[in-house]
Amino acid sequence: MAILRWDHVFSTTLMLHNAPAKIPTGFKGGGLFLQLSGWAIVISAFVLLRGSSARIAFVAAGIAVEVLGWALLVFSYGIVRRGGK
Amino acid sequence: MTEGSLSLALVLIFLTPLAAAGLALINAGLGRSRSAAHTMLASLCVMGVAALAYLICGFACQSFSGGPSHAFIVDGNQWSWLGAGPLFLRGMQWDNSTAALVLLLGIFSAGLSAMIPLGTGSDRWRLSASLISTAVFAGFTYPLFAHWAWGGGWLQQLGVNCGLSHGFLDTGGAGVIHASGGLTALAMAWILGPRRGKYVDGVPAAVPGHDGIVVLFGCLVAFTGWLGLNGAGAILFNGATPGGVVRVAVNTILAAGSACLATAAMTRARYGRPDASLCANGWVGGLVASSAIAALVNPMAAALIGAITGAIIAISVEQLDLRLAIDDPGGAISVHGVAAIWGLLAAGIFGSGDWLAQTAGVATLLGFVFPVTYGLNCAINRFHPQRVAADGDRQGMDLHELGAGAYPEFVTHHEDFTR
Predict the structure, then answer these.
(1) CB 3.0–4.6 Å: which of A58, B26, B149, B402 could bond B218 by disulfide?
(2) Are B411 and A78 within 8 A, CB to CB?
(3) Do A11 and B395 touch (CB under 8 A)?
(4) What pLDDT was estimated at residue A24?
(5) pLDDT per residue as tens digits for the range B89-143
(6) How far apart are CA B338 and CA B331, in angstroms?
(7) Per 3-state DSSP, what percentage of chain B is helix, strand, and coil (rounded to 5)?
(8) Rounded mean pLDDT of B295-304?
(9) Per-residue pLDDT averaged across B29-55, rounded?
(10) What is the CA B322 to chain-centroid distance, rounded?
(11) Burial level of B343, CB count in 10 A (0-12/13-18/19+)?
(12) B366 vs A contacts (CB less than 8 Å)
């Protein structure tokens, strides 16, 4: 009686190559730096500013910088997955 | 806080390990059968390491509202940035006080939060590396944000110092537990890379979970735990009365149920029939969102927020996989990270939270917690590689790391298989 093991089925059908991701250091460092910078702007807005409109404007600016950092990280990860440098 | 409320909080805290149990079942069920035992063992070990790290320095960093802390003063306003409690819980009063209950809830919550990335790292994250990562997370990253949000830190002080209502509100731990865990899961997904064979020329292959029943049962177990988590959090961090806890429980089931139904409707509309594993993700995502809103909104708002959460989960899981090539077998990034951030923002939009304070909390999670947890895990990866060797990828984590599979007699007879 032939016996099939799921483990073997999976390992033979899915034995393809995917190397662990290595995000380019420059992009990665830049993205993380922008995220931290954006957060620093946000926290500064609360600690240093008094007026509510100025505070909101600085918080918005800080979040925009954070978004840039995220975009850079996601973009660099996409480059790696597509096999680029 | 009355003696009755504190006693109720103690009982509710005893339910919270069920959230971890449910999460462990979900992670195991959504992974491959050849890594199931590894996932369950990792969950147990992670709980143990998290408890130890939290005992050694975690609670000292977190502290509690009114407890000792490091602070700086600007323009006469005091900004607390780190707890200053004694290490190893020295001098702890073992009574029914708020401090003791916050400690107990913190031990369980740190373990639950550290367990979240296991779902993402399923099938490829080494056990020893996950435990080192957990020690760093539960000893530093988690308590730091927990101090800011729960322990009288600067996010809570936004209310007093900046006139933003009660400051940042996160009564059930959506940010402290789930968003920080979900963001760590994203960091691990990027550091570990996808499972072998998941993406072929950029096209994702479907790798279904091995046991849908375990996943769905895990959802029900987790729900019980969430009732305890949200209820205890509402008492300890929002001063809820026993009557208020009833509203929290009602909002919890409404958010989870609506999220599950919305995901079922979304998947039916997109694929022609409801997808069980995505519906399970929707259910847990609703629970996660409820952690942010359950004590702050009315039931109709909870149902609406839950439904939006379910729709977001269905889209997010798919987009992370298809467009961003992020391999997340347990869906932890969407379920815990995305849902928690949406819940925190929704608490400011629909509930009694201040939207600017909630935005500050979310900005802190995205702009501080993620880079820190990513950097720390990259550092760990340098001296102790986190991803299993290629053999482990092929054999499965059970055989490779534990020497035995979870289902040693799990065979399929040919006739049964082809019938």
Answers:
(1) B26
(2) no
(3) yes
(4) 65
(5) 998 888 878 999 999 999 999 999 999 999 999 999 999 999 999 999 999 999 9
(6) 10
(7) 70, 5, 25
(8) 96
(9) 96
(10) 23
(11) buried
(12) 35, 39, 66, 70
β-pairing, B77-83 with B69-74? antiparallel
CB B105 within 8 A of CB B16: yes
- B73 contacts in A (CB within 8 Å)? none
How far apart are alpha carbons B20 and A74 in whole angstroms?
30
Band (pLDDT 50/70/90 cuts) for residue A82 is low
DSSP secondary structure string for all residues of B77-105: EEEEEEE-PPGGGTT---SSSHHHHHHHH
User: What does the pLDDT read at residue B173?
Assistant: 96
Q: How far apart are CA B217 and CA B223, in angstroms?
A: 10
- DSSP-derived 3-state class of residue B121: coil
> Parallel, antiparallel, or unpaired: how do β-strands B199-200 and B203-204 relate?
antiparallel
Contact A3 B370 (CB under 8 A): no
Using an 8 Å CB-CB cutoff, list chain B residues near A66: 363, 366-367
Q: Kindly tell me the burial class for residue B355, based on how many C-beta atoms sit within 10 Å of its own C-beta (0-12, 13-18, 19 or more).
A: middle
Q: A66, B197: Cβ pair inside 8 Å? A: no
Helix (H) / strand (E) element for B73: namely: strand B69-74
Sign, Cα dihedral of A64, A65, A70, A73: positive
Task: Find out whether A31 and A70 touch, Cβ atoms under 8 Å.
Answer: yes
Determine whether the interchain pair B193/A74 forms a contact, defined as Cβ–Cβ distance below 8 Å. Answer: no
B356–A55: do the CB atoms touch at under 8 Å?
yes
Chain centre distance of CA B280: 15
CA distance to B121, B161, B187, B197, per residue, from A20 (Å)? 12, 46, 13, 12
Confidence (pLDDT) at B9 = 95
Cβ-based neighbour number of residue B252 at 10 Å: 27
For B159, the token pair is: 């209310």
ipTM of the complex: 0.92
Cα of A43 vs its chain's centroid, Å: 21
pLDDT bucket at A81, cuts 50 / 70 / 90: low
Interface test with B, best of A12, A22, A47 (most B CBs within 10 A): A47
Q: How far is the C-alpha of B23 from the C-alpha of B218, rounded, in Å?
A: 6
